[in-house]
Amino acid sequence: MTGYPGFDVLLARWASRRQLDVADLAKTAGIPEHELRAVFDGAVPDSPVLRRLAPALHLHAADLFVIADVVVPDDLAPLDERAGGLAAGLVQDAVGLPPEHRDRLRRLVRSLPQESRTQPVRIPPVYEQFPQGPGRVLVRMVRNRNLSWTGMARTFLCLTGRYWAASTYGAVGNGRKELTPDLLVDFATVLGVPADTLSVLTGVDLPDGTLQANPVAVDVAQLLWDVRRLTVDQMREVSDAARAMPPA
User: Fold this and answer.
1) Which residues form the domain of 127?
2) Residues 15, 133: one domain?
3) Is residue 13 part of a domain?
4) Residue 2 has what pLDDT?
5) Cβ contacts of residue 240 below 8 Å, gap of 6+?
6) Which of 1, 79, 98, 192 sits most deeply, having the most CB atoms within 10 A of its CB?
7) pLDDT digit string (tens) for 35-94?
8) Which pLDDT does position 145 carry in this prediction?
9) First vs last Cα of the chain: how many Å apart?
């Protein structure tokens, strides 16, 4: 897709949708107004600005780096790609658990120590070096959850009930697959991001009365985010715990 707006335009759209001006947003984010105004005027935001701005926009910092087309720092990127291979299975198990057991899983994840990185941050292969466009942003945000294309297909099926072939997510990233309102809502569900926020980012209008994600999907999307910084051994521990819990 050509002509995809820069971060300054996307940020202005978001602020306008929520009836905020630069001064309001700067105050909420704790950023000097002149620094934020420079971003609104087209300056590339640096890491401290993005980290402070993310909570004010109700976004994860790693996702905001993707939206701003800035490299995700090592301390925010998924820790262990091997752990990502277990993520979709954990999602499938967690969907069938009662809320109190999903809460137990999240507490277990939070109790685990943050291990040091032993492998470099994954560099996207050529086939994932997508052109500028909304699809690239969405797929990279899902990759922030340590999901491969196959993992995406399985996770989307579990959380939305809709199955797309793994290659479809590559087509979304490359701009070859049209972003429909239904597909955008599916991304919102898996990402745990409000659909209207993704509408601002992509320019895809949502029909009135768009349904919100069900509570199970909300819980599991948050769990998916929580485990992105686990090692493969820690992920196995969480997965084993999930399978040992009685289903709802």
Assistant:
1) 81-244
2) no
3) yes
4) 53
5) none
6) 79
7) 999 999 999 999 999 999 999 999 999 999 999 999 999 999 999 999 999 999 999 999
8) 97
9) 44
Domain check: are 117 and 194 in the same one?
A: yes
Distance from C-alpha of 216 to C-alpha of 97, rounded to nearest angstrom: 9
pTM of this structure? 0.94
48 and 120 within one domain: no
* Residue partners of 78: CB distance under 8 A and separation at least 6: 84, 122, 143, 144, 145, 146, 228, 229
User: Residue 88 in contact with residue 146, Cβ under 8 Å?
Assistant: no
Where does 87-227 show beta strands of DSSP type E?
none
C-alpha 33/C-alpha 82 separation (Å) is 42
| Shared-domain flag, residues 163 and 94 | yes
Q: Which CATH number is 24's domain given?
A: 1.10.260.40
CA within 13 Å, CB half, 238: 35
Asked whether the beta carbons of 160 and 189 are under 8 A apart, the reply is yes
Residue 189, φ and ψ in degrees, nearest 5: -65, -50
Question: 29 with 39: CB under 8 angstroms?
Answer: no
Domain boundary (67, 96, 112) is at 67
Length of the chain measured in residues: 248
- 113 and 30 in a common domain: no
Residues 121 and 149 in one domain: yes
Please name the helix (run of DSSP H) or strand (run of DSSP E) that holds residue 186, with its range, or none: helix 181-191
